[in-house]
Amino acid sequence: MGYLIGVTALWAFSFSLIGVYLAGQVDSYFAVLLRVALAMLVFLPFLRPSLLRGKQRLALMALGAIQLGVMYTFFYQSFLLLSVPEVLLFTIFTPIYIALLDDLMFGRFTPIYLVTALLAVLGAGVIRYDGIDSGFWVGFLVVQGANLCFALGQVGYRRLAADLPPTLAWHNVFGWFFIGAMVVALPAYLLFGNSAALPSTSLQWGVLAWLGLVASGVGYFAWNQGATKVDAGTLAIMNNALVPAGLIVNLVIWNRDADIPRLLLGALIIVASLWLNHWWCQRRQVAVS
Q: Of 40, 46, 163, 170, which residue is 20 to 30 A from 108 by alpha carbon distance?
């Protein structure tokens, strides 16, 4: 849980940096490419290919390609089809995908995970909903593509970790994750990128360096490690914990307007979903023992 809380705080700050210094100023495909490349460079020195078999390496690469490469391609494309509030609103459905995919991959059905995930969606919706325009269905589906890729990457990582030795040194194999992401990010930039919209200031380069080395490199490693140490319900809920965290960072540092009552109400609903999930897990453990 500590991993997920720490990365939530890290990503809340990083998303604000993107909105203030990069969005609409730096080509998004280049930003994704540089973030993935820098994150990959963080882990390449630690890479020990002998620790994984060929199929396991390919599986980890596929997870990186889906969770980062394809997800970001969908996500940035959605901004061409929807307003920012609509994009933010439609990202809140990720917990539902995580709850359903985790049950599917582990061959079970856990209704409480779906209930708490829906509560997390409700809490995030209370915070983010600002109304939507007509004719948004294509954009909605594009955002759901991004949500599904991010959820599939997390649950797939949990499934892969369950089949590997618990003593595996993940920092010695995680480079494959970013190599897989690079397989998608590089062609995407070559096909769709705009070389005329590269960073033009040292501040923009600095923000991209932070996002690549820390937010992407350290962040995705810690988040996926955290995903293997909690139950699916907690993981699903924490995917929407970024909503109040991001708004708080924006409010405190950049003094952006925020509807405080809605922020508090939505945050309370998300916390309540975490409490309900924790209560149920404890009750199940007592019953089993």
A: 170
Q: What is the pLDDT along the chain (289 residues), one digit of tens a residue?
A: 789 999 988 888 877 787 778 878 899 899 999 999 999 999 999 999 999 999 999 999 999 999 998 998 888 777 777 765 567 677 788 888 898 898 888 888 888 878 887 887 888 778 767 666 655 678 888 888 999 999 999 999 999 999 999 899 999 999 999 999 999 999 999 998 998 999 999 999 999 999 999 999 999 999 999 999 998 888 988 888 877 777 777 677 766 666 778 777 887 888 888 888 778 877 776 665 5
Decide if 173 contacts 52 (C-beta within 8 A): yes
String of b and e for 231-252 (b: at least 16 CB within 10 Å)?
bbbbbbbbbbbbbbbbbbbbee
Per residue, the 3-state secondary structure of the chain, as one string, reads CHHHHHHHHHHHHHHHHHHHHHCCCCCHHHHHHHHHHHHHHHHHHHCCHHHCCHHHHHHHHHHHHHHHHHHHHHHHHHCCCCCHHHHHHHHHHHHHHHHHHHHHHCCCCCHHHHHHHHHHHHHHHHHHCCCCCCCCHHHHHHHHHHHHHHHHHHHHHHHHHHCCCCCCCHHHCCHHHHHHHHHHHHHHHHHHCCHHHCCCCHHHHHHHHHHHHHHHHHHHHHHHHHHCCCCHHHHHHHCCCHHHHHHHHHHHHHCCCCCHHHHHHHHHHHHHHHHHHHHHHHHHHHHHC
Please calculate the CA angle 60-232-57 and round it to the nearest 5 degrees: 10
Q: What is the pTM for the complete model shown?
A: 0.85
